[in-house]
Specification:
Elements lengths: L4 H7 L4 H6 L2 H7 L5 H28 L3 H28 L4 H5 L5 H16 L2 H19 L10 H11 L1 H18 L4 H24 L2
Helix pairs in contact: 4-5, 4-7, 4-8, 5-9, 7-11, 8-9, 8-10, 8-11
The protein binds 5-(aminomethyl)-2-methylpyrimidin-4-amine.
Keywords: Hydrolase, Thiamine biosynthesis
Organism: Allosaccharopolyspora coralli
GO molecular function: thiaminase activity
Length: 215
């Protein structure tokens, strides 16, 4: 394999990958043009995504094969549960999201499918498999947010959703995720690499469905 393991999986996840990172929903976020009702439904569902995502980070922490990886993952859990969580609370206030939609909203099919994949991988997946799903979730977000223009919209709900995902810290986190996935994935046999690829493709497809639902 000449390309890295993560690049190899990304190349085999087209056309979904490109459709996610260039999704019209993201262009609309760049210009503060997502109508409130759509931004509200997207963020309400994404907060439920986040719950399962944090569980998946916890599984990565538990299943990592070395302390250096655990330390890096712990740092990301700290960011997601502080800066990102606070963003959601402020956005919910700005968008007048009622309490029940913050804690127990009716879930869209795309949210259910993504949560199922993450909880299932958290429970049963190997460390490379857990890293695969985390990498898709973070790398796709880095890639779409990296396409943002220099000037962000005035609305913090839109602007911070971009800046949370294109900061140098977030890029370093995605670079690390990919390098750890390349490290442990490169040592897998063909059958286990194929299992990671299937998860990568499934997660990429679900990212697309998630955006489509709110567009
Ligand atoms: C659906 C989805 N995918 C990825 C991310 C980035 N953690 C997110 N917030 N939401």
């Amino acid at each position: 394999m000449v390309a890295s393991f993560s690049d190899w999986m990304r190349e085999r996840s087209e056309p979904d990958w490109t459709q996610v990172i260039a999704h019209p929903f993201t262009d609309s976020v760049f210009y503060g043009a997502v109508p409130d009702n759509l931004m509200r439904s997207y963020l309400v569902q994404d907060y439920q995504f986040l719950d399962a995502f944090v569980a998946l980070l916890g599984a990565a922490l538990a299943r990592a094969d070395q302390y250096a990886s655990r330390l890096r993952i712990a740092g990301s859990i700290a960011v997601v549960t502080s800066d990102e969580n606070t963003y959601f609370q402020r956005a919910f206030d700005a968008l007048d999201v009622p309490d029940e939609d913050r804690t127990e909203p009716a879930l869209d099919p795309a949210t259910v499918a993504f949560r199922d994949l993450m909880f299932d991988t958290a429970e049963r997946g190997s460390y490379p498999e857990v890293l695969t799903v985390l990498t898709v979730a973070e790398w796709t977000y880095l890639e779409w947010a990296s396409r943002a223009p220099q000037t962000l919209p005035e609305s913090f709900v839109h602007a911070e959703w971009v800046s949370l995902h294109n900061s140098s810290e977030f890029r370093a986190w995605v670079d690390w995720l990919r390098s750890d996935l390349d490290r442990v994935g490169g040592e897998l046999d063909e059958r286990d690499q194929a299992r990671c690829l299937r998860l990568f493709q499934q997660a990429t497809h679900l990212e697309q469905e998630f955006f489509d639902t709110h567009w």
